[in-house]
Specification:
About 10% of the residues lie in helices and about 35% in strands. The protein is mainly beta.
Amino acid sequence: MILQSPAFEDGKEIPKKYGYKNGNASPPLKIRDVPEGTKSLVLIMDDPDAMGAVGKLWVHWIVWNIDPNTADIAESTVPSGAVLGMTDFGQIGYGGPAPPDKRHTYIFKLYALNSRLSLPSGATKKQVEEAMQNHIIAQTSLCGTFAP
């Protein structure tokens, strides 16, 4: 399974317009090679470097029940039928990079599941991860960096 963005290469700089304070547009994503038997996809974006600045991993985006036939997620959109979770900004939906101190790495994790998740909009990352347990059949990631 492959997750890419036409906006930035893996490990490279995420363009400013995708930052929380710079437009807060979610980046376009491309999904390839989803395994047979996948019933839904889950996307989680977080910032492990926030641990040093705010004392915890910061959750920026949670999307689940993405149709496994989804090949492209356009900029600033959510796939039809997908459900959005609560970010650490206290908002449902995308919350772009906003490092308070220095350049941070942001990880977009994509999971292929053998089921759909029965969670309401606004569920937390912890609730989504608990619901995914024993249902992950593949996973991949895409990393980008962002500086204040």
